[in-house]
Amino acid sequence: MTSEVKARAHANVALVKYFGKRDVPLNLPAAPSVSMTLSPLNTETVLSFADGVDDQVLLADVPAEEKFSRRISKYLNIFRDLSGNHRGVRVTTSNNFPTAAGLASSASGFAALAAGAARLFDVNMDIAQLSAMARRGSGSAARSVCGGYVLWHRGEKNDGTDSFAESVAPPEHWDLRILVGVTTTGPKEIGSTVAMERTRTESPYYNAWIKSAHGAAKEAVDAILKKDFEKLGDITEHSALAMHAAMMAAAPPIVFLKGTTLDVFHLARSLRKEGTAAYFTCDAGPQPKLLCQAKDADIIARQLRAFPGIKDVIHCAPAEGVRVETNTTTYCEK
Ligand code: 2P0
User: Fold this and answer.
1) Is 38 touching ligand 1 by the criterion CB < 6 Å?
2) Which of 42, 59, 113, 179 could lock 290 by a disulfide, CB 3.0 to 4.6 Å apart?
């Protein structure tokens, strides 16, 4: 049996957003979504069996808060039940990006944890099963299991076995970049899970948003395969605006966008008018992100870095899928 497993997974940014669940406990999405898996943002997680039945969870070498530890233990119970092995696990996890920067670490975190736990508990899974398993930790983690350009299927089944992500093109297919503009570093006012549920139940625009996401996902995959940057950029911006419009119309409203976020949206538009193709997106937080082609990335990053209200810029490129190393083997998803 493997004694220690190290798993690494990258974060991802959705070009067509996931924002609404058809099943909350299983994190089943109401619509498909499309993302890019991103280097250098990653989580590294090391797992080994503990001496007793209790788990020990360390976040960047410091014992994690109880709420976080409980979430990890509850998730590991899935693997304990599947394998019939009820030993405790020592989990050490660290992100190479600040959690406070408002970038989702649950996607890379649960993708790494799912892959590492599957190996530690010796539960045999193909990539689709692993993605569906990561989804149960956090929805967007389904996408971080896969590399490059990724489609997460909505699925139809109640048990979620057909709601997994798959790579539609590997990282080397297309050298696009995402430039993350770091604005505030404070905690979020409202978590994504709560925000999604409130939007579903309290926004008059929710159904229209979900309906539009189905077509957008199909078109985005088509644009990726054809390397049609203008089309992909248009879909990306529209998906972000439609998602934020739906949540802003909820009662009470959910407003993640700040002044700087909107100003960067306009920066992307003026860059395009001047002939530089940059498109914006934004998730459940205030950080604006610009999608561009590699050839324009440095020049756009310079402008973004100098922009009022932007504290830092993280330059991201397409990344490989989850990687697992044990004492004897290495395994990587493209
Ligand atoms: C996305 N977000 O597609 C969207 C856009 C936020 C806005 O996936 O409740 O942390 O754990 O399934 O995965 C954030 O959602 O939510 C997210 P849960 P998760 O990237």
Assistant:
1) no
2) 179
